[in-house]
Amino acid sequence: MTPPQISLLNRGLNFIPTKGSNKNFIQQGRWDLQQYHRKLKLATYFQHKKESDPPPFTPKSQWVPSAGTLPMEITTLVAADINHFDSSFRISRSRPNLSPEETLALEELSNNKNIIIKPADKGSVVVVMDLEQYLWEGYRQLSDSNYYSKLDKPIYLDTIKLVDKILQTLYDKKFINAKQMRFISGTFEPRARIFYMLPKIHKERHKWSLPYEIPPGRPIVSDCSSETYRTAEFIDFYLNPLSIIHTSYLKDTYDFLSRIKQLFIPQDAMLFTMDVDSLYTNIDIQEGIQAIKNIFRKHPNKKRPDKELLQLLEINLTRNDFEFNGEFFLQIKGTAMGKKFAPAYANIFMAEWETSALSSCLKTPTYYFRYLDDIWGVWPHSVSYTHLRAHETPEHLVCRLLLE
After folding, report:
1. pLDDT at 90
2. Which helix (H) or strand (E) holds 194?
3. Distance between CA 281 and CA 46 in Å, rounded?
C-alpha cells in the first residue's frame, strides 16, 4: 500500500470527504435545524398534556404543530433561527479535506476489486485483506455443515407468504391494527440477507484460521430490509423485557462497577471470568425455542401473542438464508448476529442454562454476574492444585469445576 492510501485509511471508515462544494453540508445543517425546531414545537405543544409513548410498530410520526397553536415566542425564535442560518451559510466552493494524493488513493482503493476493506472486530482499526483470503475464510466457515447448508436458490421470497399469514392472524386477534400490520410486513421490496465478516485481528496470530496470514472472521448476517427484518423487531419488543429479569443480569459497565463496589470479597476467594465461545451460533434452535416457551409460561401475559411470536421466531431461526459471493446458504444452527432479537434471545437461553447448571453444582460461587456471554464471579471455595491439568491455571480450574 502507498503512504497516501495508508493516510486515507487512518482517517477511519466514517470519515466523509468533501468535494469542492459545501452543498451537502448546508442541506444537512438545514435538516438538523428543522429537527431541532420540531422537537422544540412538540415540547411546547405537549408541555401541559399527559405524556404517552407512541404506539409500537408504526412509522415515525412527522407531525408538527401549526404556528397558530404555538406561543409567539416560539414562532419568533424559529423565524430568527432560519433567517440567521440562511444569511450565514451559503452554498460555495469549499476547501477539500483530502490532499490530491489522498483523493487519488481513494479512487485507487474504490476501484480495486482484489481487496476487501472492513473494520476490525475489536478496536478502531481498518483491515485490508486480499479478496481471495477473505473468500477463503468465508467459505471455510460456511463449509461447516453443523451450522450452514448450501442452497440452490434463495428461499426468502417464499417466506413472505408464511409471515403474511401469521400477521393476518395477529390482526384478526386484535394484537395489531392495520397500520401496524403494514409496517411489520414492510413496505419495501425485500432483499436477500448478506453474509460478511469482521476480522478478529486481536487474536494471537499463530491461532489465526491460516496462521500468520488469514485472521478468523466474526460472522455477521445483515438482516436490514429482509422479509423478516421487522418481525425480528416485533419479537424483540416482547423478548427484551424478559431477558433482563434474571439475577445475574448486567446492563453495562456502569452497572457492573456499581454492583462490585458493594460486594464483600473474602480474602482467600478467587475472582474468575469466562465467556461462551460463539454464543449466538452455538445455540441449538430447538433448545432456544424451548427456552422462550419456558419463560413465556413463567411470566404469562394475556396481551402477548405467545403462539404467533413462537411461529415468527421459528421462521427467523430456521429460514435465515443469505448470500455470500453470489451464492446462497442457510443457517441451520444458532441465530445470526444482525437479528434484532438476537441479544435478548441469547440472554434468555443463557439465563435458563446457568440456572440449571448452578442448581446442580455441589459448590457455587458467592457472586455470579453475566453480560450476554461474558461471566464474572467470586469463587470462595479452596482449590486443590493437585487437580490442575497440564497448562491449566487456577482460574481455568475454577471455570472447569463450574461447568462440570
Report:
1. 82
2. strand 193-199
3. 46
Q: Are 263 and 367 in contact (CB under 8 A)?
A: yes
Query: How far is the C-alpha of 301 from the C-alpha of 368, rounded, in Å?
Result: 29
DSSP run (H or E) holding 330: strand 327-331
Task: For 299-334, write each residue's pLDDT tens digit.
Answer: 999 999 999 999 999 999 999 999 999 999 999 999
* Type of residue found at 272: F
pLDDT at 342: 95
Please report, as a single letter, which amino acid is at residue 289: I
CA–CA gap between residue 368 and residue 250 (Å, rounded): 10
SS3 content of the chain, % helix, strand, coil (to 5): 45, 15, 40
CB 119 within 8 A of CB 13: yes
Q: Residue 272: exposed, middle, or buried by beta-carbon count in 10 A (0-12, 13-18, 19+)?
A: buried
Strands (E), 285-356: 321-324, 327-331
- Please state, in angstroms and rounded to a whole number, the distance separating the CA atoms of residues 230 and 56: 11
Residues 6+ apart with CB under 8 A from 12: 124, 126
Please, which residues have CB within 8 angstroms of residue 53's CB and are 6 or more apart in sequence?
Answer: none
In tens, the pLDDT along 102-131 reads 999 999 999 999 999 999 999 889 999 999
Cell numbers 456502569: residue: 254
Q: Which three cell numbers stand for residue 155?
A: 428461499
